[in-house]
From TrEMBL:
MF GO annotations: oxidoreductase activity
Organism domain of life: Bacteria
Xref: InterPro entries: Nitroreductase-like, Nitroreductase/BluB
Name assigned to this protein: Nitroreductase domain-containing protein
Stretches that traverse the bilayer: 71-90
Keyword set, alphabetical order: Membrane, Transmembrane, Transmembrane helix
Length: 388
């Protein structure tokens, strides 16, 4: 197998694994094929050469969230976030990357077999090749290493921030920097439209929607049971996925953590509905929304809601999220508004989205707090190299 390309893939996964995902479930899988062979050629624009490597990004069926039908959308967007960082890291190593979309396409038996062997849904295959065949000199190697280290530093310090933001309203220059588009269209597509909502009436409207509907998250037994599986209570337990209680509520003593572990458990939460605890939590979340100066909204035309466009939207979101982090801006997604039809449709009419579906909504603002811990799976659990 082309060891140089395999090393580049592993380096890229080391970076891409820091992509955000719903509940930090990290639903991605990377499969590389040593010899793509004729059976896979059918979807590739030309047969694979000996110095090329075929690398597939897939949705890992064992890791996907499925308590609500709308979570399918979040799974494709999450894989797109990973794909964006993967592309960035692989091309930083002077590796060329040609995309062959596998989702929304009729796959032949060999592809289907590959998907079923790996219990996954194939999303996109990438033909990777080195840009030149000259042996890299020491200077080039050290430049690539330093670029990758800088990128790793940036991606591994980005965090979802769930506290109060500074109340600055972004000015036009900041917004155009945040939304500037440098990644290729073949990766991010053209369909997703992103903007920052700053209209005070709209923010109040969204606040009311959160107060009214966010309890759905906490009081739906099935949805909360799945969320609770991803809550981590012990910072010492070396988790590989999920999110720590502290990243929701800030640092707290052990006694209080134990208390939350108990009261947040799904059965207890069901009982606490009788005394309106889910409603109280929704109200607290809505206060954060009310104090936000802006919301990031990403939408897709309803006619363009394909899996491929959702993955591409994820890549576009990653470009914005990374640029935001670079500028000291953090995001806090409020997905409960999108996970149920009624709040989503009300939100869409509030924001005058005609014939468009909102696929991502987040509070956005400057922060000056240190990053909290966010666990990740190791590279070897994400990557499977298949021999011929
Ligand atoms: C599509 C998507 C939806 C998300 N929805 C929420 C949400 O509703 N509430 C929340 O607090 N975090 C949400 N998150 C943030 C994830 O929980 C977070 O990315 C993950 O726990 C990893 O943490 P990190 O972003 O700090 O690395 C969402 C992330 C993604 C990608």
């Amino acid at each position: 197998m082309n060891q140089k390309l395999l090393d580049a893939v592993n380096n890229a996964i080391e970076i891409a694994r820091w992509a955000p995902s719903s509940h930090n479930c990290q639903p991605w899988k990377v499969i590389t094929l040593e010899s793509a062979g004729k059976q896979y050629d059918v979807l590739l624009d030309k047969p694979l050469k000996s110095n090329e490597l075929l690398c597939c990004l897939a949705l890992d069926k064992k890791r996907q969230l499925n308590a609500l039908p709308s979570l399918r959308f979040e799974m494709y967007v999450s894989c797109g976030l990973f794909l964006g960082l993967f592309w960035l890291a692989v091309t930083q190593q002077k590796v060329r990357c040609r995309f062959h979309w596998l989702c929304d396409t009729e796959l032949n038996l060999s592809w289907l077999q590959l998907a079923s062997e790996h219990e996954s849904e194939l999303l996109v295959a990438m033909t990777l090749s080195t840009e030149d065949f000259e042996a890299d000199n020491e200077y080039q190697v050290s430049r690539t290493t330093s670029r990758l280290n800088q990128l790793l530093e940036l991606v591994s310090t980005r965090r979802t921030f769930r506290g109060l933001f500074q109340d600055d309203l972004f000015d036009q220059e900041t917004i155009s920097n945040l939304l500037s588009n440098h990644w290729p269209q073949l990766l991010t597509g053209l369909e997703a439209s992103a903007h920052f909502e700053q209209d005070i009436d709209h923010i109040h409207g969204v606040t009311q929607l959160v107060a009214k509907y966010a309890a759905l998250d906490f009081s739906s037994y099935r949805a909360w049971k799945e969320t609770y599986r991803y809550l981590r209570f012990d910072l010492q337990d070396n988790a590989e996925d999920g999110f720590y209680l502290q990243s929701l509520f800030g640092p707290m003593p052990k006694r209080k953590i134990k208390f939350y572990e108990y009261i947040l458990s799904p059965l207890v939460m069901q009982m606490l509905r009788l005394v309106n605890v889910p409603q109280h939590m929704a109200t607290e979340l809505s206060k954060l929304v009310d104090k936000s100066a802006q919301l990031l909204i990403i939408k897709l035309n309803k006619e363009h809601l394909s899996k491929r466009n959702l993955v591409m939207t994820g890549a576009r979101l990653m470009e914005i999220w990374l640029q935001a982090h670079h500028m000291g801006v953090a995001l806090h997604p409020i997905s409960v508004l999108l996970q149920h039809d009624e709040p989503r449709e009300t939100l869409q009419s509030l924001l005058q989205c005609h014939n468009e579906r909102i696929v991502f909504v987040a509070r956005a603002g400057y922060i000056n707090t240190a990053a909290s811990v966010s666990p990740r799976r190791p590279v070897q659990s994400i990557h499977t190299a298949v021999g011929s």
